[in-house]
Amino acid sequence: MQLQRAFTQNRKAELWMELVQTVSGLLLVGFLWTHMIFVASILLGAGAFNKLAHFMEQFYLLHLAVGFIILTVGAHLGAVLRRIPGRWQEQKTVWRHAKIIRHQDTWSWLFQAVTGSAMLLLIIIHVFVVVYAGIDAKLSAGRIHSWMLWFYLVFLVMAEYHASVGLYRALVKWGFVKRHSLKRVLTVVTICTILLGLASIWVFFSLGGSV
After folding, report:
1. Minimal CA–CA distance to 40: which of 137, 131, 148?
2. Given a cut of 90, is residue 43 above it in pLDDT?
3. Nearest 5°: phi and psi at 204?
4. Which of 30, 59, 121, 136 is the most buried if burial means most Cβ atoms within 10 Å?
């Protein structure tokens, strides 16, 4: 009876962790796409970007966004870590099995784990820069002209890939959509968001010191 009760409790805990992982992941994907739209306002000109940045600062939306990121990323990380092997030998075993299986979804999960680990550091740097350096077209253009050009290029590709794979796995896991049709849709969405991000970065770069 005690063993059965413990097993039931573990199943309930596992279900809650799955829900936390899914909900936090969906919230982060939504935030990422919203953030992309905000950054893409530079395509309408420096004035539009600065007005939106001023609006966010005036109503403390930036502080709310930072708090949201910290809480949501923390919850997502806590839920995901239980799935990632912590020991080196276990990690080698996972990579060896992936090579044997040669399944696309298995490799996508592995690369998602790798990009997720790298993104944690990138997110911390990005949040620190935004909070302490501020947001406006001139500051952003200056950062793009520095070493952060490559930082944002890597961040853009990693974030969109991680979001696409995470959204795919979440929707397939809960049986919301068909696997193959979802892949095609998310591939198009990922390409479009990356192109939008690249266009925004190019505009910032072309602005240079003229803002």
Report:
1. 137
2. yes
3. -60, -45
4. 136
In the chain the domains, ranked by start, together with CATH numbers, are: 2-80+101-207 (1.20.1300.10)
Query: pLDDT (tens digit, 9 = 90+) per residue, 150-196?
Result: 999 999 999 999 999 999 888 888 876 777 788 889 999 999 999 99
Q: What is the DSSP letter of 84?
A: S
Residue 51 tokens read as 């007005």
pLDDT bin (cut points 50, 70, 90) of residue 4 is very low
Contact by Cβ (8 Å): 82, 74: no
| pLDDT of the residue at 110 | 79
Q: How far apart are alpha carbons 154 and 138 in whole angstroms?
A: 22
158, 112 contact by CB (below 8 A) = no
Question: Environment class of residue 68 by beta-carbon count within 10 Å: exposed (0-12), middle (13-18) or buried (19+)?
Answer: middle
What is the crossing angle of helices 148-173 and 104-133, to 10°? 130
Question: How many residues can be counted in the chain?
Answer: 211
Provide CB contacts within 8 A for 95, sequence distance 6+: 110
Helix axes of 179-207 and 2-39: crossing angle, nearest 10 degrees = 40
**Alpha-carbon span 65 to 71, nearest angstrom:** 10
Report how far residue 164's alpha carbon sits from residue 33's, in angstroms, rounded to the nearest whole number: 11
What is the amino acid identity at position 177? V
